Write the structure tokens for this entry.
Amino acid sequence: MNTARSGKILGRRPTQTELAMYSVMWSEHCSYKSSKVHLRQFGEKAPKSDRMLVGMGENAGVVQVSDTLAITFKIESHNHPSYVEPYQGAATGVGGIVRDILTMGARPIAVMDSLRFGAADHPDTARVLPGVVAGVGGYGNCLGLPNIGGEVVFDPCYQGNPLVNALCVGVMPTDRIQLSAATGVGNLVVLLGAKTGRDGIGGVSVLASATFDDDGPARRPSVQVGDPFAEKLLIESCLELYDRKLVTGIQDLGGAGLTCATTETAAMGKSGMRVYLERVPLRCASRAWRRTRSSPASRRSGCWPSSRRKTSVRCWRWPTSGVCWRPRSARSPRATGW
Amino acid sequence: MSTRIGVVTFPGSLDDRDAARAVKLAGGEPVSLWHGDSGLKDVDAVVLPGGFSYGGYYLRAGAIARFAPIMESIIAGARAGMPVLGICNGFQVLCESHLLPGALTRNAHLHFRNRAQSMIVESTETAWTSDFAAGQKIVIPIKNIDGRFVADDRTLDDIESHGQVVFRYTNGNPNGSMRDIAGVSNAAGNVVGMMPHPEHAVEELTGASVDGLGLFTSVLRKLVAA
């Protein structure tokens, strides 16, 4: 996606922030532009069932298991980050999948992993494997989630491209399901969780959707750094917000950060959203806004609560940092506030 | 009226819900206590659960929790004889609070360990172990990376001679704890800390055993008799 093409869509020259947004959203990681055709089959070929409460298109599927309970589970890869920086890559892979389960309204209860490495006696396997195993185990343990199983295969075909998949399962009352569409003109949008840092910037475009070569720039800064304590507080805060029915919709911030979370949810709700980037709590004050837009920080969620006062009380109880934006705009979906 | 046992939740506590469940299964009434409150809600005993209070990995585990408002009341209560059990991070908090001797440091092999662990009950004189038999072998899960119990030789000799070693690892020391110590008590026997997780060993379906229930039934029996 280049300047000319994005300019044509907008009908004007894109701002630097908008260019950064196009860059991350056009990545394979965010848009599934080449795999969409295959992935669609999961929705089309799935047998119809009354027990499937939520199917394709949301953060995770939800299956009813009793009259009052439902479970949700999802598996996701974090391959390239784990190859570049094994511990943090694998740890934030677990963090990301736990967040998906949380945003469906469930309490995460367990994790699993499925790993593929190059030849067992290859020196690079010795570099990658210990960090991945420690990252998966360490992050889950800090959230109190048992790792209830996993599998590992060594084969030379995974040399230089190990596969690190993490699964999380969560449980919820069937009436607590949360969806991600940002609906309701005038509703507030709240950003919750860890402060935004410089780690992981552009991870979806320079890491997830790229190939590696020895001459390229150092990619380690593109891997985000995990903070399980912040995610644990986010879990407890969100569950209390759900139970008090304060949330209209919720979306976690994945690899493309605020860019993806705000645009996708506004699009699903068929409305616009006014976002004040300068109010985002930063770990480091010197960051440019366009970086703020695409920083992933996997311990955060955006939600649109029905009561600002009650939300701030719940988040104050659990020491979670957050920011509240002005009422959502009903103006053109392309209206931007920066 | 059933016996009320408080379970403290710090930000980052992970096993508070499990501990409350264990109290209930043993026949007590679990009462949630919040780290920022100072009142103990008339509970008869307190459990400090496992986890990472205040993000334990930022600093020495338990070092911040020690200063929580609720700890002031718990420390005062413990000195007055109220039964207190610290599990894993709770044990670390009790050592940091100087209610128990010694300290917990990074495992000798520097790795996280998670397994069903065999232990010997060394002391049945505490508020939390009277339902066991002395020398009884029990199995309780452990899951820690900062679980190595350390103290100077004089302290170790002292607690051994006064019967303050409550549990000792057997069939392999999982973390390099000095003299295989898995749990200790204060001199009065009302405060006990242990690295293994008895709250995870209370049901056949999910636990390695149901040996953990003994700690909770012990304290309930003692409180009812009192």
Q: What stands out?
A: Helices of chain B lie at 16-25, 69-79, 89-96, 153-161, 213-225.
